[in-house]
Amino acid sequence: MEAYSFSLAKSPDDIFEREKEAIGEIIFRSIAGMAEELEPNLWEGNLERVVDYGHTFSPLVEMTHIAELLHGEAVALDCLFSAIISYHRGTLSRRALERLFQVAYRLDLPVFHHGFQNIALLIDAIADSAIHRDGKQNAPLMSGIGSAYFVNDIDETEIMRAAEAMKRIHEQRLHEKTELVGGV
To answer: What does the alpha-carbon distance between residue 135 and residue 148 come to, in Å, rounded to a whole number?
Structure first.
């Protein structure tokens, strides 16, 4: 996937026409990677699953704002939110975070939603995720593009900091289009 992410971030608005082959390859590799991870874990003995990336906060945010968010949009927002947490933890570089936001902008995905500003909702969301992960957060975070690790200690302070950063990135994008993630 890394081989294509820079191409996607730099493509013009007609990305789907110009990058059909790359997009097809990304989708194929994504499906194969998901199957490779899930197949030996059919009975979910291991609940540290990379395929849960984007599904820590999004389920509850999506259900709360079902009339406003499609599933994929909620997952994309969760991916960005989790990437901000990774950046704050020092496991994701600023450049990688910028690239993730660039791809989201180019694909016309939302990079902000008020549901990701509702701290009580986000705390409930991570608690709800833990219910489905044997009482642990098992939150996948990024240690680079294409690499993940799992944590069980995301707290309210960290959620608040990530929510504030997501809002700043969004506001900056609205007002300045030079540096994508300044003020993180």
So the answer is: 20
Read off the pLDDT of each residue in 89-118 and give the average, rounded to a whole number: 95
Alpha-carbon gap, residue 174 to 56, rounded angstroms: 27
52 neighbors 148 (Cβ within 8 angstroms): no
Which tokens is 80 given?
């960005």
Q: What is the pLDDT of residues 46-70, one digit of tens each?
A: 888 888 999 999 999 999 999 999 9
Is the distance from CB of 117 to CB of 167 less than 8 angstroms?
yes
pTM of the model: 0.84
C-alpha dihedral, 126 to 60 to 74 to 176, nearest 10°: -70
Q: How many residues does the chain have?
A: 184
What is the number of H-type helices and E-type strands within the chain? 8, 2
| DSSP track, 85-119 | HHHHHTSS-HHHHHHHHHHHHHTT--S--GGGG-H
